[in-house]
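Researcher: Re-running this chain for the archive, since the previous output was lost when a drive failed. Same request as before.
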Amino acid sequence: MRERIFKACEYISKACERIFTSFEQSSFTQKKNSAYGVIKRKY
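Model: Regenerated structure tokens:
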């Protein structure tokens, strides 16, 4: 029983990690684009 719970926790943590990394990448590209827009407006 404990082994099954551990496997489920491991699966959930892996899924969360994947979601977090994809979210981080998308937010990073948005920040990069917004920074680029600010630089373009200044010059």
